[in-house]
Amino acid sequence: MAARLSEPQPLLALVEALRRLPGVGERTASRMAYHLLQHDLQGAQHLGRALSEAVSRLRHCDQCNSFTEATLCGTCQHPERDSSLLCIVETPADQNSIEATHGYSGLYYVLMGRLAPLEGMGPAELDFDRALARATNGFVKEVILATSFTAEGETTAHYLSEALRSKGLKVTRLARGVPAGSELEYVDAGTVAWALMERKPT
Amino acid sequence: MAARLSEPQPLLALVEALRRLPGVGERTASRMAYHLLQHDLQGAQHLGRALSEAVSRLRHCDQCNSFTEATLCGTCQHPERDSSLLCIVETPADQNSIEATHGYSGLYYVLMGRLAPLEGMGPAELDFDRALARATNGFVKEVILATSFTAEGETTAHYLSEALRSKGLKVTRLARGVPAGSELEYVDAGTVAWALMERKPT
Ligand SMILES: [Zn+2]
Ligand SMILES: [Zn+2]
Predict the structure, then answer these.
(1) Which one of A61, A100, A108, B43 has the fewest CB atoms closer than 10 angstroms to its CB?
(2) What number is the ipTM of this complex?
(3) pTM of this prediction?
(4) Which residue stretches are annotated zinc finger (C4-type) (chains A, B) (predicted)?
C-alpha cells in the first residue's frame, strides 16, 4: 500500500476506524471512505447515527443472550413458545435461519460465537456457564445443538453436548446430509459420506 | 437470507446503514454489526465519531478536487511543486501510489471516479469541465493521464485525451508493460501483448 503522504487527518481517521470492521483491510477501508465522502455523504451520516444508536440502545437478552432493547427479547417474551425446547445457536443470524423454517416453536440461546482456541475464544470467553445454567433451569427437556457444521462449530457442539448430557438432559444435533435440491455430483465428498452413513430406510 | 423475525430495531437500522458501504451485502453487514456489538463496542463508537468528523470537516480542494480540510490541499499549496505538470488520477489512493514513487514533482487533479456509463457516471457526473478548466489554466504544459488500465480507465483517458489535445495541450499516458519483478509466465496475455507491441530498442 502506498504511503499516505498528503491525506487530511479526518480521512485517515475514518479509514482507520473502518479497518476495525471484520474482513476490511486498508485498501477496502480507503475505497469505503472515498465512496462515502464522494457519493454518499448522507449514508455516512446515517451510518454514524446508526452506530451510536445501536451502541447506546442494545443490550443482551437476560435469558437468551441475543440483542434486545428490553430486558427480555421478543422471542423469549412470546407466550406461545415451548419452554421445554432450547435451541443453541452461534449467532442471531443462525437463529433467523431456524425461525425462517417456521418449523420450530421452542426457545433459543445465542452463544454469540463458537469455540476457536486459536482466536482466544474458549468456554470462559463464550460464557458457557451461562448457557448451561439456562439449559438446566428445570423447564428445558431437550437441547438442540444448531452450531455450524464446521470444525469449530462441531467442537462447540461436542463440548456442550458432553456438559449437558452429564446434567441428564436430552441433547440432539441438527441432521447432516445432502442439501435439499442439490445434485449429488456437486455435493462435497464429506457431505455425501455422511449422508451414506446416516442413510434411512425409505 | 432468512427473514429477520425478531431483531431489535437499532440492530436492523445498523445492518441497513452498513449495507450502504460499497461491496457490503446483507450477510456481511449482519456479520459486521454482530462483531461490533459483541466484540468491539469501542470500535463502533470510534467509527461513529470518525464518520461525523469526516463528513463535517472534509471538503474538496478548490484546485485538485481531492479531500482536504482547507480551501487548498497540502499538495496544491506546496511551493516546490512544478505547476507545469498536471497528473490526472481517479482517486486519492492512485495519487498516493504516484507520490510513493518519489518520482513526480508536478500537481494533480483527482477525478474521484472514472467513466462508467452503466453506473450513470458520465462526463457531467465527473465534472470533466472542471478538470479541463484546471488543465487549461495557462500554467500547465503537459497533462499525464494516470487513470487505471481497465476498460473504464482507458475510456476515461481516451475521452480526456481528445478534449485536452483539442485545446493544444501535450497529453501523455503512463507506460504499459510487464510489471517490474514479474516472471513472464505469470503475466496475463494482454499485458505481454502490449509489452511486445511497445517493445523498445535496448
Ligand atoms: Zn431472549
Ligand atoms: Zn489540491
Answers:
(1) A100
(2) 0.76
(3) 0.76
(4) 61-76
